[in-house]
């Protein structure tokens, strides 16, 4: 209780002798520092907003244009061709200003208009340049003259030191494909899967669709593309993720693993402390737009920015997000400047503050907070142990339970604390990770990250940080707010910062000193009636059936990597897709519709598109590989090394499939 009393800035008590007033200087200092930090954030956001708003120009360029226009005026040259005089005549303050002042003001207004026009022209040129996608089709290791010129022009028009959001207004919109092109691509994707009779029937149906409803639907789609930033992403988000009423555990949420071969420390609290601190650093960099825009494909082409990263990063800048469930659909709740996290351990939920005195908690301070949770021997409250199973089961029962049992009182307050937390973390009781001495250790690790015990992950949070007993980490991420590359960028930063920058002491503890003024973690309070406990148990049983139905087997393939594939002058992705087709055919004796996710990063608010890798060409390659009468040249194998490499991978994939 001592820390709690010290956290109060002032307190007074009424006694027979009068009022006893106590003032805490330390608490007042913390309040002052928090205020300074808040105003500093606002100033940084305002500055970045100005820089992004005038990109690819800079605010200083406005002064250059003004000085240039003023210089021409003094040289008795009128670059405005009479526009400055027109502005001067229409000024509403002509009667109050001297003639010279009117001239200067008119020249400044004209220079500002010219400056804004130049910005718009530069943005349009940059947008046209970013609409070029010819670099995708360049052979590996070579670049055409056209692409080299294009890369030079993009670098020239991209300005200096773009911020995270600088390219947002310059990215082209996703184009609407033509009806003929769409039907042609569809027929090509189904041709390898159908015999001649089935294909002719499908071709007939496609032509009927092309003649009747397709033209009208195409007009609606084009109309939407005119007023929507991206005519696909909002529908994708709503109808793929938010309107689904089936469990999001396993079906939607995905996971990310820790480094397989490296464990910096085996102390659970210390590893969690470093990871959380690294996430806070990442969030601060996003808030200040210090992360550089993402580039693609070539080190010579450093101009592409993924607007989807911007949009999702903005949500992360607002301190994470959470799904708010309802009967009809879910809603993504965006937050702003959340300063606490929630920790789950052995059926108990704890609130942990992430800031103190206007700064982030240091790694060792976080470690001590988490260690207090690990050392707590109290039992879960009735209904608390499996409460998170509500987020693992069907969405409608969870929505109805939320309205009935979590819309008022302490339950609402505790649920708000979870949903408005910047980070949700589970201090897991298990030991996981890759162990070459243990059979199927990766399988157990992956299943734990994917679904856990079905009640020790809050699946509605943007992501769950999972810290295992032996110091390994992992993430379970909700899918609606972002795709895997977004989480991957953050996770890569966290792991590298943890290992290379923060580090640990010789005893395995996080570095830093403990602040005794910190408020300890506080347990969330619940009042869960028996009816709600029954719904929770029902959701848990359904989720358990889904989890038990997951058959996962991971295999570490270290015979070769992408470097050897590139030496064969082949795309690593295409290599893997062909190997999957060949392995599946050898295992099943047939082909199937194959989905490979691709990202529409080069377009504004782009998310995910589909690549159908089971193509006429890939199936022809597989048939040729299976035909003993075909030579290597007829199979279009580059050389013997490529053939041997692919066979090795095919056998590995076939082993996994079987």
Key features of this structure:
658 residues, alpha+beta, seven-stranded mixed beta sheet, 22 helices, 49% helix, disordered N terminus
Count the strands? Answer: 15
Name the strands of the widest sheet in spatial order.
3-12-11-10-6-7-13
Radius of gyration (CA) equals 30 Å
CATH architecture of the largest domain: 2-Layer Sandwich
Helical amount among residues, as a percent range?
A: 40-55%
What general form does the structure show?
globular
Number of helices: 22
Mean of pLDDT: 83
CATH superfamily of the largest domain: Choline/Carnitine o-acyltransferase, domain 2
- The CATH topology of the largest domain: Chloramphenicol Acetyltransferase
The low-pLDDT segments are 1-10, 295-318, 637-641
Largest sheet: 7 strands, mixed
Report the sheet-strand fraction: 5-15%
**Domains, number:** 5
Note the gap between the termini: 59 Å
Helix/strand-derived category reads alpha+beta
């Amino acid at each position: 209780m001592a820390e709690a009393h010290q956290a109060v800035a002032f307190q007074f008590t009424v006694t027979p002798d009068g009022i006893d007033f106590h003032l805490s200087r330390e608490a007042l200092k913390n309040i002052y520092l928090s205020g300074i930090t808040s105003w500093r954030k606002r100033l940084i956001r305002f500055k970045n907003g100005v820089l992004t708003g005038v990109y690819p120009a800079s605010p200083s360029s406005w002064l250059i244009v003004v000085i240039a226009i003023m210089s021409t005026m003094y040289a008795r040259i009128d670059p405005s061709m009479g526009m400055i005089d027109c502005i001067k005549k229409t000024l509403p303050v002509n009667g109050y200003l001297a003639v010279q002042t009117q001239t200067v003001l008119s020249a400044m207004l004209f220079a500002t208009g010219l400056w804004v026009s130049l910005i718009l022209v530069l943005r349009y040129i940059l947008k046209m340049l970013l609409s070029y996608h010819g670099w995708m089709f360049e052979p590996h290791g070579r670049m055409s003259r056209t692409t080299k010129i294009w890369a030079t022009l993009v670098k020239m028009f991209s300005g200096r030191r773009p911020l995270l959001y600088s390219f947002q207004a310059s990215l082209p919109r996703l184009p609407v494909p033509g009806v003929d092109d769409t039907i042609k691509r569809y027929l090509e994707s189904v041709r390898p899967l159908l015999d001649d009779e089935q294909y002719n029937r499908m071709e007939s149906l496609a032509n009927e669709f092309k003649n009747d409803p397709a033209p009208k639907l195409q007009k609606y789609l084009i109309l939407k593309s005119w007023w929507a930033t991206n005519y696909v992403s909002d529908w994708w988000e709503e109808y793929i993720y938010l309107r689904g009423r089936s469990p999001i555990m396993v079906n939607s949420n995905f996971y990310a693993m820790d480094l397989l071969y490296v464990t910096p420390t085996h102390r659970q609290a210390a590893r969690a402390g470093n990871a959380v601190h690294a996430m806070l650093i990442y969030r601060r960099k996003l808030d200040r737009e210090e992360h550089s825009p993402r580039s693609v494909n070539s080190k010579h082409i450093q101009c592409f920015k993924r607007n989807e990263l911007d949009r999702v990063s903005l949500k992360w800048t607002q301190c994470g997000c959470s799904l708010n469930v309802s009967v009809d659909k879910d809603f993504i709740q965006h937050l702003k400047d959340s300063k606490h996290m929630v920790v789950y351990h052995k059926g108990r939920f704890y609130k942990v503050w992430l800031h103190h005195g206007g700064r982030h908690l240091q790694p060792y301070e976080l470690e001590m907070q988490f260690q207090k949770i690990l050392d707590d021997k109290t039992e879960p409250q009735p209904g608390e142990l499996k409460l998170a199973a509500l987020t693992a089961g069907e969405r409608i029962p969870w929505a109805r339970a939320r309205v009935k049992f979590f819309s008022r009182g302490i339950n609402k307050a505790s649920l708000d604390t979870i949903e408005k937390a910047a980070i949700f973390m589970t201090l897991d009781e298990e030991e996981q990770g890759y162990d070459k001495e243990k059979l199927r250790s990766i399988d157990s690790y992956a299943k734990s990250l994917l679904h856990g015990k079905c009640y020790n992950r809050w699946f509605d949070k943007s992501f769950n940080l999972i810290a295992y007993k032996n110091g390994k980490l992992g993430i379970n991420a909700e899918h609606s707010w972002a795709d895997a590359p977004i989480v991957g960028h953050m996770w890569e930063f966290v792991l590298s910062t943890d290992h290379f920058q923060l580090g640990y002491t010789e005893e395995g503890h996080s570095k830093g000193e403990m602040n005794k003024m910190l408020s300890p973690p506080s347990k969330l309070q619940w009042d869960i009636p028996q009816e709600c406990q029954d719904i929770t148990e029902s959701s848990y049983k359904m989720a358990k059936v889904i989890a038990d139905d997951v058959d996962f087997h991971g295999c570490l393939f270290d015979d070769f990597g992408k470097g050897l594939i590139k030496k064969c002058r082949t795309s690593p992705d295409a290599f893997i897709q062909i190997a999957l087709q060949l392995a599946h055919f050898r295992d099943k004796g047939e082909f199937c519709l194959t989905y490979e996710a691709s990202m529409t990063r080069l377009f504004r608010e782009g998310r995910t598109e589909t690549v159908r890798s089971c193509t006429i060409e890939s199936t022809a390659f597989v048939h040729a590989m299976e035909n003993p009468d075909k030579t290597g040249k007829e199979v279009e194998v580059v050389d013997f090394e490529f053939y041997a490499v692919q066979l090795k991978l095919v056998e590995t994939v076939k082993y996994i499939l079987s």
